[in-house]
Structure formats: C-alpha cells, structure tokens
Amino acid sequence: MSHRYRIAVIPGDGIGREVVPEGVRCLAAAAQAHGFEFEIAEFDFACADYWLRHGEMLPPDWREVLGGYDAIFFGAVGWPEVVPDHVSLWGSLLQFRRGFDQYVNLRPVRLLRGVRSPLRDRQPGDIDFLVVRENTEGEYSSIGGRIFEGTDRETVVQETVMTRIGVDRVLRYAFDLAAARPRKHLTWATKSNGISITMPYWDERATAMAQRYPDVTADKDHIDILTAKFVLRPQQYDVVVASNLFGDILSDLGPACAGTIGIAPSANINPDRTWPSLFEPVHGSAPDIAGRGIANPVGQIWSGAMMLGHLGELAAAAQVVAAIETVLDERPEVLTPDLGGSGTTEGLGAAIAAEITAGE
Ligand code: ATP
Ligand code: MG
C-alpha cells in the first residue's frame, strides 16, 4: 500500500487563499507521479475572519488539533484593516514556532532559470545557498522593560538570550546540511567585534561544532560585511547560519537577491520530529493585489517541495523544483505580472502541475 501523509492546510488571508490551492494542486500531481497519497485537512484558523468571529487567531486546543499531522502547509496571515499585524503574527505563526519547537527557519536562496536577479549580470549557479535562522531565542526574547518612564532618565532594555542547547542545536542542523551538500561550506554570522558577550559565545559554540565536522569548511563573517557580500559575491556562500535577528535580516535579503519575493520558499522545522514542521512562502498576504488572481504561486509551490523533502519524498521534491524551473524558463506566456508576464495564479499553478505530471 502506498504511503499516506496527513497534512494540515491553513490558507490564512489575502493571497494565501489564492496561492495555497495551487500549492495543493502541485502536491497532488507529485503524489500521483510518485505513488504516495495525501490526506488533507483544511483549517480556517489564523485569518482575519476567524479573529472577527472568535476574538483570537487560534482555538485554545490548537496544539492537540494540529499536533498529530505530518506537516502544516501554510499560506499567509495578515489583514491590517481588520487585525493589527502584531496580533496576526504573534497569535499564529509565532505560536506555532514556539509551541511546536520549530527551532530552525530554513530558506533556500537560488536563482532559478528564467528569473532575473536584481543583481546585475547574475546567472543561475551564481546564487545557490541556504540561510538557516535560529527561530526560538536570541535577540527576540521578551526579557526587559522600561524604567524612569516619562522622565528624562527614561531607559529601555531588552535582553538577548542564548542557551547552550538552543545555540548548539541550530548549529548542528546547519553543519549537517553543509556536510550533505557538494561544496560542504558553512559561514556563521556574528558580530563579536561589537556585541561583546553573546556573540563571542555564539562564535565559541560554532568553533567547537566545526571541530566535529572535519569535512566542512567553516568560517565566520560579521553581519555588516556579510550583508554586503550577499550582494557583491553571493557565489561564495553555501550554508549560512545565524542568530534570530541576523537570520531574519539575511533571510529576507537572500531571497531578494534571487529575484521576486513571489518565488521564495521557507520552512519552520522541528528537526527532532516531535511536532509537525510548517512550510510557507516568504511573502505575506499582499492585500494590495489580493482578490485579483495575479499573485505568483511559485513561493507556495516551492514551499510544498520543501515539505516533500522533509517527509522523505526526495525524488518528488526535486521534480517539483525542476518543474518550476522549466516553466519559468520556457513558458513566458503563463508568468504572473511580478515576473514580467500577464498570466494568472491559476494559469501558472496549472502549468507547473502539468509539468510535474509530464516530467515523470
Ligand atoms: P508580511 O508583513 O506578512 O511579511 P508584507 O506586508 O511585508 O508581508 P507582502 O505581503 O509579502 O509584504 O507584500 C510585499 C509586496 O510584494 C506587495 O507589494 C505585494 O503585492 C508583493 N507580493 C508579495 N507576494 C507576492 C506574490 N506571491 N506575487 C506577487 N506579488 C507579491
Ligand atoms: Mg504585512
């Protein structure tokens, strides 16, 4: 009997509702081509409409409801006219990251054939690296506060928290990734020349981890020069690992270098597999173009490919990415406006699904 994966699908708001069906369509095509099955349950959490009805983004028992699925396939949240942005983010995605201990945020950055990079003269092959962001601690702690409020001695402090477990587990994940890639190169982002307590600790743990991976060439870059080099010499990177804040910055800058935000995928991963991991495009709900059927579905579809890889369906994952690249390169008539075409979300999704089926 073929394997059956149970997937929770959460479209969310705005273009999330338009691109998720195309992602599901491509997953179905990949399943059929590779002889496995999906059992899909769709949830209406985490959207503005749910918030209006319930006064919260998720039901109180969301961990029990979602915890048994093999993965979560997520669209986008945010409808600022109705729900303040921080409510939709803290009320849903950040709950998942912490509640399901998704301590790795992974973003592949690759310039695909058929896509123009905003960096002049860049060719596919020049930009092909992975950004691994620590997703649960670091600079994004809620420890701190204000004193002397309202006086001219007003003072505000917010702490960075690094734990040995938290730092080591994301480094280990990144080194494992680097060890499995042909170039076996890892760069860790730091700022130990300016941040004198936490960042030297991060360097120390990275140096210790590097000793356990003799096949991986590891080096560090300070975050300021690292951002410059992403733009000037992206070809020198293979796996880049960073703390929560630095990783947040790099994982937006990287995909921007590789073309439109509409194509970039991401994964929030629980590597220990005690809880489901979550796969979502990098872009948000894009209220400015929602409802017009012109959103680019590639970020969602590529996120689906990452989900297939996580489930162990490596051949299917590779085929979905290959199909995306073939269609972007050879079918200009189906490209969406952000890629310079005049096609629709549905047209581009259908073309990729057909390519998955044909390429089998
Ligand atoms: P968030 O705060 O959720 O990260 P945002 O509001 O910062 O999101 P997006 O919703 O990603 O940003 O939109 C940023 C810009 O990119 C908008 O102009 C939007 O129309 C465009 N955009 C985002 N996603 C897509 C897509 N899939 N296809 C085409 N254009 C997109
Ligand atoms: Mg937004």
UniProtKB/TrEMBL annotation:
Cofactor list: Mn(2+); Mg(2+)
SMART domains the UniProt entry points to: Iso_dh (SM01329)
A GO term for molecular function: D-malate dehydrogenase (decarboxylating) (NAD+) activity
Pfam families: Iso_dh (PF00180)
Enzyme Commission code: 1.1.1.83
Recorded family membership: Belongs to the isocitrate and isopropylmalate dehydrogenases family.
Name listed for the protein in its UniProt record: D-malate dehydrogenase (decarboxylating)
Organism of this sequence: Lentzea alba
